[in-house]
TrEMBL record:
InterPro entries: RBBP5/Swd1, WD40/YVTN_repeat-like_dom_sf, WD40_repeat_CS, WD40_repeat_dom_sf, WD40_rpt
Superkingdom assignment: Eukaryota
Name the UniProt record assigns to this protein: Compass component swd1
Broad class of the protein's primary localization: nucleus
PROSITE patterns per record: WD_REPEATS_1 (PS00678), WD_REPEATS_2 (PS50082), WD_REPEATS_REGION (PS50294)
Keyword Nucleus carried by entry: yes
């Protein structure tokens, strides 16, 4: 977990701190790695993608490849690759470790271009392999692309063993709806897709079959977003309401928790998300005459703050993964950075510093200006110099990382024990009857099969690893590399 620099600081922004001049229609912070939240990807209405440094407020990359608006952005897990999708029916993978130069052959940041048969609404990387991509087309199709073998699979609302004629025939009781949005779970073990009929589908990426159908709304689901832990998912429907669901990591059971909406104006939502720690829910209102971002408390559903910006409609917004910072896009293309207001803390200049309203007489302490013994001072400095400080090892909890699948957390060491899983079910030790024991045993077997499926998906995703091991925009020196002896000629 990210270490808190100030545990008493406010956890949500208050006002616009700065504005980035651009032609943006979409924004996204990089969510993982040591540089989490340090860079902001901006997709432009003219097809140009910019990467901004959040600290310096400067552009560090300009990527030209699309000819229409870039509405989808996705970072790889180590920030080396950036996936952009556009209405020109293409998705481009950019290698940010390459500095593009027109006079140098092969020095192009464009690593791969994927073409589709329809405009691409959004595209995301698989959390564990940047060579697996999930794209949502504006025609209502979701395509799973595997660059390792070049396959493109259109996902369908089909359950393994289910008769297709029963659903689509004249006597079919269920109508199939097109998919409007889709995302990977943060651990990459499942695909969650929202349909135009208000049904949330849980799909196995390996078998491509639907594992679960949940009716969550009577209107079309437009957006899906997970929190960093993967235990909560929020979705936006066309009925102008946000719905929060909890995800059971063992059984993948979806439980509706809360519902959020603008009770006054009934505004639609152009963007949704969570704060970095998952404590707050964010909704970017699509009001025609205002630029508002709503912030609710996830547990109590209390409206904490309504961030009121310039009098321009909001197009998109994203929350910083570790800090109370929000980036929002206006219809003019400008990107507004929201932060907390930090008053001047004069006590930080020196311990015990006090700000006085008028001059007072200073009382000198008896030992305040005593001269310290030079021998003791030199000995203390020598002891401080002998301390070994490790500057090479990165702490495991120093920056956000994608969550691991369930199999890696508890069941990676050996065989799956059905008795241990059954013991986790309530009242499994003292069943009321044989029928209860049978039901609990069946539940344990179902959980075991789910864990086995998760392990199979992880093995499939990591079968051919990618080269996404680079963690910065400039290669750092290897401080552990030995310096070789130079030859006599100086080479």
């Amino acid at each position: 977990m990210q270490q808190l620099l100030n545990p008493f600081a406010q956890k949500y922004p208050e006002a616009v701190d700065s504005t980035l001049s651009s032609q943006a229609v979409s924004v996204l912070f990089n969510p993982y790695g040591p540089f989490a939240g340090h860079y902001l990807a901006v997709g432009g209405s003219d097809g140009i993608v910019e990467v901004w440094d959040v600290e310096t407020r400067g552009v560090i990359r300009v990527l030209e490849g699309h000819v229409k608006a870039v509405g989808g952005l996705s970072w790889s897990r180590n920030n080396r690759y950036l996936l952009t999708s556009s209405h020109d029916a293409t998705a481009i993978i950019w290698d940010l470790s390459v500095l593009s130069h027109p006079s140098i052959a092969g020095a192009s940041a464009r690593a791969h271009t994927i073409r589709f048969d329809a405009p691409v609404a959004s595209a995301v990387f698989h959390p564990r392999n940047s060579r697996i991509i999930l794209a949502t087309l504006t025609c209502g199709e979701v395509v799973l692309v595997d660059l390792r073998d070049g396959s493109k699979t259109v996902l369908k609302d089909e359950v393994e063993g289910e008769d297709e004629d029963q659903d689509e025939g004249a006597g079919g009781s269920r109508k199939r709806n097109s998919m409007a949005c889709a995302v990977f779970s943060p651990c990459g073990s499942r695909i969650y897709a929202g349909t135009t009929g208000g049904v949330l589908l849980v799909i196995d990426p390996l078998s491509k079959y639907v594992l679960q159908r949940v009716k969550v709304a009577n209107a079309a689901i437009r957006q899906l977003r997970f929190d960093a832990s993967g235990h909560h998912i929020i979705l936006s429907a066309s009925d102008r309401a946000l719905r929060l669901l909890s995800v059971d990591p063992i059984s993948n059971t979806l439980t509706p928790l809360h519902r959020f909406q603008d009770l006054v104006n009934r505004s639609p939502w152009h963007a949704i998300g969570f704060s970095g720690d998952g404590e707050y829910v964010m909704g970017g209102a699509g009001h025609k005459m205002a630029h508002n971002v709503f912030v609710w408390d996830r547990e109590s559903t209390v409206l904490i703050k309504v961030l009121e910006g310039p009098k321009e409609p909001l197009v998109d917004c994203d929350w910083h993964p570790t800090r109370p910072v929000i980036a929002s896009v206006a219809t003019s293309g400008d990107v507004h950075i929201w932060q907390t207001s930090s008053p001047d803390n004069w006590a930080a200049f020196a311990p015990g510093f006090e700000e006085l309203e008028e001059n007072i007489e200073y009382d000198e302490r008896e030992d305040e200006f005593d001269i310290e013994d030079e021998t003791d001072l030199a000995r203390r400095k020598d002891l401080e110099e002998d301390l070994e400080i490790d500057v090479l090892t990165i702490e495991t909890d120093a920056y956000p990382r994608p969550p691991n699948p369930l199999s890696a957390l508890s069941l990676s060491g050996g065989e799956i024990n059905l008795d241990q899983l059954a013991a986790s079910i309530p009242d499994s030790k003292n069943p009321a009857s044989d029928s209860d024991l049978t039901e609990e045993r069946a539940a344990a077997i179902a959980i075991t099969r789910n864990v086995q499926a998760v392990r199979a998906v992880r093995a499939w995703a990591e079968k051919e690893g990618d080269d996404d091991t680079w963690e910065g925009f400039y290669q750092s020196l290897d401080l552990l590399e030995d310096i070789g002896d130079e030859n006599e000629d100086g080479s």
